[in-house]
Design goal:
single chain, 432 residues, 8-stranded mixed β-sheet, 16 strands, 25% strand, globular, EC 1.4.3.-, oxidoreductase activity
């Protein structure tokens, strides 16, 4: 099998900077023949591996299958930003579901943040955590919303770690004049996602979970109180199953596929910016206010990791670097000719309301996904919460089950074209 640096994922384009810097990445054998387990897990990302670890630690037999290599999906290729709360600001969510539920979901997300940091420390996973995040406005009209966000977070949600940045401070902290104001969050940070993923897989395997790579699920069925997962290498028969495929659900399970849609996101890594110390001098991660969000950070040896795309599509550009460099230059004109050493992409699972999809899709089978670009914390925690639900320790996963997540309109044939049109429209609105 190809080395870590040269391994090209068959489900995601490009070789990532994360691959080049993650160190040893163990391989796991493919399934060879049929077997039984208490719980079958489909998907070797954060959700599946956290569930596998917590179940195996409690003595539950677990068989986890991954279609490619663990880390080939979004868990090993994402922007690495933890964020705070849910995908929506808490005051926005409060308008839709009320204060009590909004507060409960905010608190759950804070618990997810603590869990992730504590988990990495407990298990000695060096995920290169770096503190700080800046959320910045690309329109001057957003100023009042950003000011109120810091006040509401502190006064109503018990989160005192936000501070409003006026235009001058925003430009100084970014080293760019492109944005009008922002919010600084000192209660969160950003990580090396593949290092976390590799460490998590190791911990799950050491706890007794059976992990099988290069084993794609072909079908999942429920019959006679048992769940059967069919693969090209045998079947797994279990008492229950977790579908944790996120943006790679494909045609495996129709309910999930109608609610979780894959979109493409792309990231480029520049050479170290030694000659540009004005770029993000504080080392924070950044996310902007566009619907088609741009996210970036200076990380590792001082290179800029920049993510985004002009419009969401399911296709891959012929030259990822060209698209990323153009967007970098809009924010940092001095970097218009910067060398990009690595460029890669992957599929992100989104839902209509940009909230996680958690549902029992058939008896004994729970599907979890659709983190909508806010999954580093939430996916890890949802895996833990799934295990706790199986073990009868917690019902917190019900907070996500109770969310109203409608299916994408248009049916199987028209979902993708309609999504493309809708998101392209929002991308156009970002420009004005």
């Amino acid at each position: 099998m190809a080395s870590l640096e040269m391994w090209q994922s068959p489900i995601a384009p490009g070789l990532s900077w994360y691959q080049a810097t993650a160190g040893e990445r163990p391989t796991y054998a493919a399934l060879d023949g049929s077997r039984t387990a208490d719980v079958a897990i489909i998907g070797g990302g954060y959700t599946g591996l956290q569930a596998a670890y917590h179940l195996a630690k409690a003595g539950v037999s677990v068989a986890l299958i991954e279609a490619c290599r663990v880390g080939d999906g979004a868990s090993g290729r994402n922007g690495g930003q933890l964020g705070t709360g849910q995908r929506w600001w808490p005051e926005e969510l409060e308008e839709k579901i009320g204060y009590e539920r909004s507060k409960a979901l905010f608190d759950l997300a804070e618990a997810a943040k603590r869990h992730l940091i504590d988990f990495s420390r407990e298990h000695q996973i060096e995920m290169d955590y770096a503190p700080g995040q800046l959320n910045v406005a690309h329109k001057a009209s957003y100023r009042r919303d950003y000011q109120e966000n810091t006040e509401i977070a502190a006064e109503r949600y018990g989160y005192p770690h936000l501070s409003f940045m006026d235009e001058k401070e925003t430009q100084e902290r970014l080293g760019s004049k492109r944005f009008y104001c922002g919010v600084r969050d000192v209660g969160t940070g950003h990580i090396h996602p593949l290092k976390l993923l590799i460490g998590l897989a190791r911990v799950a395997a050491n706890a007794g979970a059976d992990i099988f790579e290069m084993t794609r699920a072909k079908a999942i069925r429920q019959n006679g109180g048992k769940v059967t997962v069919e693969t090209q290498r045998g079947t797994i028969t279990a008492s229950r199953a977790l579908i944790a495929c996120d943006g790679h659900i494909d045609g495996l399970e129709p309910v999930t596929a109608s609610h979780v849609m894959p979109i493409r996101s792309f990231i480029g890594a520049t050479v170290p910016l030694d000659r540009h110390p004005q770029v993000l001098p504080g080392g924070e991660a950044v996310a902007d206010s566009r619907f088609v969000v741009r996210y970036f950070r200076k990380f590792g040896d001082g290179r800029l990791l920049f993510g985004g795309r002009e419009a969401y599509t399911s296709d891959n550009p012929k030259d990822i670097s060209q698209h990323i460099r153009r967007q970098i230059a809009e924010i940092y004109p001095a970097l218009r000719d910067v060398e990009i050493t690595h460029a890669w992409g992957g599929s992100v699972g989104i839902t209509m309301p940009r909230q996680p999809f958690v549902r029992e899709v058939m008896p004994g089978v729970i599907s979890i996904g659709g983190y909508s670009g806010h999954g580093v914390m939430l996916s890890n925690y949802c895996g833990k919460l799934y295990a706790e639900a199986v073990l009868g320790k917690s019902s917190d996963l019900d907070l996500f089950k109770s969310l109203d997540i409608p299916a994408f309109p248009g049916g199987q044939r028209m979902r993708a074209p309609l999504l493309f049109l809708a998101l392209s429209w929002f991308a156009l609105r970002d420009k004005f």
